[in-house]
Design goal:
The structure is a single chain. By secondary structure, this protein is α/β, with parallel strands linked by helices. Helices cover 41% and strands 13% of the residues. It has 31 helices and 21 strands. The strands form 5 sheets. Strands 1, 2, 3, 4, 5, 8, 9, 10 and 11 form a 9-stranded parallel sheet that branches. The two termini are 49 Å apart.
């Protein structure tokens, strides 16, 4: 057969497959293969057909125009695994765990600490993800299980799942890999749903050395297909799916999708007027290359091929199946294409924890996801781990032990999740998501923060709780008892609001073994919420106090509008993704210059993120240019190109401290008004505390509480930076003779614990503590190094931290010594494409 004849045959097969798809006929493997290879107008026709099938299914289910998601916490129960998949960064070896100071398995206490924080944020699902049968490969895993009285990893999974529901009422979704029929039966009473990605039916990827699943016994397609059948026989609501772009052929994709459909249909039962199978959703997941894997240089899944795979999944599975696309694995600009392809579920999205399987891809904010979904013509609704059809048919699909817990969280009419009341003033997420918050970039310093400070610290006044002096706190008042440190730390990890000021003060003053316990707890909270990655943004500073209206800037730190544009272009050429501008303009310069600087930068480099102007600067603009209107000033800054704002220009949120060390700073109430107004205007910001001068431990605690209150109201802070005062004027310890590094460790650890579930990232100010200490503080709960602070080649001295640079290569080397991944981020904590 000639090439022309082959092309004719292929086109005829595609035309017939398109006809069958539009007619709603059952597709076979040949049909799916033909459709998966479509492009151009044929692809458009496939997308149209998939959309129509999806819409018909949603209407029939009683929820037309609804796309669902599950609000979850991600619990990585163990990262040990007996498999060796070539694209995976989730797993560790025992040696890596030892170097990371990470346990073989999360303890029940660690699990509940994360789950309870998620519960407080409205989460109803606890996704338990882990490696396959690690005890079969690693003696360390077997030893841990024996020591704790568990016969197997899956025995421990069952225990943890039962514990989660008993202690919190949340529902576990189990994703433990390959399970036997007996294991599925054992786990069924502990969770309303389970899952395991089929990934692919390709035997070549499993059998041929060098392919992605070679050497991974649990990735045998026959074994995984058997699990699908066993789950159907056991009546387990099951999640499965395919991976697109791991080296499989188009035929492999087609066979994988049809195999899932066939297993689903084989075990269908009559219910609710139709035959209902056990596969509740099919995930179509696009491959994303990850560093330090065998596939790190492989291309990401092609967007067109991915969208067609979603559409063919919809057409093959029919209108009653839910087709899920993970929103963090695609750029938001691609959402419209995926929805048009027939997707109707975003899967689990967490306002608290990272995607530990894809740590380089932060979750979208839930409020942003709802907005983008609405822009596509759909309503975002929360579901449970079991989809509504399975909730309504609980007698068939749910073990009796799960029916009550599911009913307690389900809307009886829709089967979706009951509505959750947001905290007063919440923006829809409660606290902002830990990895992807739209925000200001971290700043290690502040143009006006180099003040002389008293070298004495008064005795702490009587501790106050958040309700004010003498009033009761959210928890009963407790005296700090050194012997009770472990209990205090467990409560702090599970719910920071459960501790009163006395207890937080005690933790700030911890020394010796108590300090080590504090630091370890904080680092665990960091690990199991925001994840292991250490991040850095490549940026440059420009201090706006040096702006001049003269034709030529004469001093080394002075600059004109033309210089500002040149500085921005130079920074972008050097690889910066952000330019940070801050500092109050001289009174001799018109306030409109704030806007002119922003416009000059934006015009010169439209793609460079402009992180500009502290509350003090914004107030100055408002007072001198907009008759005191913060709203008008902020609107003008937005129009001028400002993206986010620094939350600096304050030392401690205490008028007593301000009067003593920084009387030129903005009054505390005005700072709060300004940062709150910025958040409400849509700007994200950093937050800081300058410690080690005249402030007391109680004032530090009050500062953190106040930041958390602002976050509860606005959700605008993305990171917190605890900044020690340098030099002989600062560095006053809370505990006499405590080492500087221990003072910093206690401050970072308490910050992580107090702000957990609220402000996601704790940034280490390497410019103040030095690189060696920064590495130590990353092990006390820190996860971000702030900015690279490039000097640049144009007017380098116009930046406040001129002479201090942290190149990405140096940051990566620092992080590698901690055996944690390094990732370049954007200002809003998305992946900037550089990691190791």
């Amino acid at each position: 057969m000639t090439l022309l004849e082959t092309a004719d045959v292929q086109q005829a097969a595609l035309a017939e497959a398109l006809r069958r798809a539009h007619a709603g006929e059952r597709l076979d493997v040949d049909d799916a293969t033909a459709l998966l290879g479509a492009s151009g107008d044929d692809m458009e026709s496939i997308l149209d057909a998939a959309s129509a099938v999806r819409d018909a299914g949603l209407a029939a289910s009683g929820r037309p125009g609804v796309i669902t998601y599950s609000r979850k916490v991600f619990v990585p129960l163990t990262t040990l695994c007996r498999d060796r998949c070539h694209y995976c960064v989730f797993v560790d070896t025992p040696g890596q765990l030892l170097k990371k100071r990470k346990p073989a398995f999360m303890s029940p206490e660690q699990v509940l600490a994360v789950v309870r924080q998620g519960q407080a944020m409205g989460c109803k699902e606890a996704l338990l993800t882990l490696g396959d049968r690690p005890e079969d490969r690693w003696p360390e895993a077997r030893a841990w299980l024996d020591e704790h009285g568990f016969a197997s990893t899956l025995d421990y999974v069952a225990h943890v799942a039962r514990l989660i529901t008993a202690e919190t009422g949340m529902l576990a979704h189990l994703n433990p890999g390959v399970m036997t029929a007996d294991e599925l039966a054992m786990l069924r009473p502990t969770a309303p749903s389970m899952g395991m990605m089929l990934e692919t039916t390709s035997r070549e990827l499993f059998e041929v050395p060098g392919r992605v699943h070679y050497g991974s016994p649990d990735k045998d397609p026959a074994v995984r297909l058997a699990v699908l059948d066993d789950a159907g026989r056991a009546r387990v609501p099951f999640t499965t799916g395919i991976l697109v772009g791991i080296g499989e052929t188009i035929r492999d994709r087609a066979e994988s999708l049809i195999a899932i459909r066939d297993a689903h249909e084989r075990h269908a039962v009559e219910g609710q007027g139709r035959r209902q199978g056990h596969v509740q959703e099919v995930i179509v997941q696009n491959f994303r290359a990850k560093p330090q894997t065998a596939m790190q240089s492989a291309p990401d899944a092609d967007t067109r091929e991915y969208a067609v795979a979603v559409a063919v999944a919809r057409l093959a599975m029919g209108p009653d199946m839910r087709i899920q696309v993970p929103p963090n694995l695609s750029d938001p600009a691609e959402f419209a294409l995926l929805v048009r392809a027939g997707a109707d579920d975003w899967g689990g999205v967490s306002p608290l924890t990272a995607d530990h399987v894809n740590p380089e891809r932060p979750w979208p904010h839930l409020d942003d996801l709802a907005r983008r979904t609405a822009e596509l013509g759909f309503e975002l609704r929360e579901r449970l781990t079991a989809h509504p059809e399975f909730v309504h048919a609980a007698e068939t699909w749910l073990d009796p032990a799960m029916r009550g817990p599911v009913a307690a969280l389900a809307d009886p009419e829709t089967g979706l999740a009951r509505e959750w009341s947001q905290p007063a003033g919440s923006d829809g997420d409660g606290a902002r998501n830990g990895d992807e918050a739209v925000a200001g970039s971290p700043r290690a310093g502040d143009p006006e923060d180099h003040n002389s400070c008293s070298d004495t610290t008064p005795a702490d006044p009587a501790p106050r709780n958040s309700a004010g002096a003498g009033g009761p706190s959210g928890a009963a008042r407790r005296s700090y008892d050194p012997s009770g440190t472990r209990s205090t730390l467990e409560r702090a990890a599970a719910d920071p609001r459960d501790l009163d000021d006395t207890e937080w003060v005690g933790l700030l003053r911890a020394t010796g073994d108590e300090l080590e316990a504090l630091v370890a707890t904080a680092d665990d909270v960091r690990r199991y919420t925001v994840g292991e990655a250490v991040t850095l943004v490549v940026n440059r500073n420009l201090t706006s106090t040096g702006f001049t209206t003269a034709d030529v800037a004469t001093g080394p730190d002075a600059f004109t509008l033309e210089d500002a544009a040149a500085i921005a272009r130079d920074a972008a050429d050097l690889g910066a993704t952000e330019l940070c501008v801050q500092g109050r303009l001289p009174e001799t310069v018109e306030a409109s210059a704030y806007l002119e600087i922003a416009r000059a930068i934006t015009a010169a480099t439209p793609r460079l993120h402009l992180h500009a102007y502290r509350p003090q600067d914004v107030v100055d603009l408002a007072d001198r240019g907009f008759a005191g209107s913060l709203e008008a000033a902020l609107a003008a800054l937005r129009d001028a190109g400002v993206d986010t704002v620094p939350g600096t220009g304050v030392k401690v949120l205490s008028e007593r401290v301000r009067a003593l060390v920084a009387p030129g700073d903005l009054e505390i109430d005005r700072w709060v008004d300004a940062i709150t107004a910025a958040h409400r205007a849509g700007f994200r910001s950093t937050s800081v505390l300058f410690y080690g001068h005249v402030e007391t431990a109680v004032e530090r605690v009050a500062h953190l509480r106040r930041l958390r209150e602002i976050q509860d109201a606005t959700g605008g802070f993305t990171e917190f930076v605890p900044i020690p005062l340098p030099g002989p004027a600062g560095g006053v310890p809370l505990v006499a003779d405590r080492r500087d590094i221990d003072e910093h460790r206690a401050m970072v650890a308490v910050s992580r614990l107090m702000l957990s579930g609220s402000i996601p990232h704790i940034q280490i100010p390497w410019t103040r503590v030095g690189r060696t200490a920064a590495a130590t503080l990353l092990q006390a709960g820190g996860d971000d190094l702030g900015g690279a602070l490039l000097d640049g080649r144009v007017k380098p001295e116009a930046g406040i931290e001129f002479g201090q640079e942290l190149p990405a290569t140096d940051a990566a080397a620092l992080t590698a010594r901690l055996f944690r991944p390094f990732r370049l981020r954007t200002t809003d904590y998305r992946d900037a494409g550089g990691r190791s």
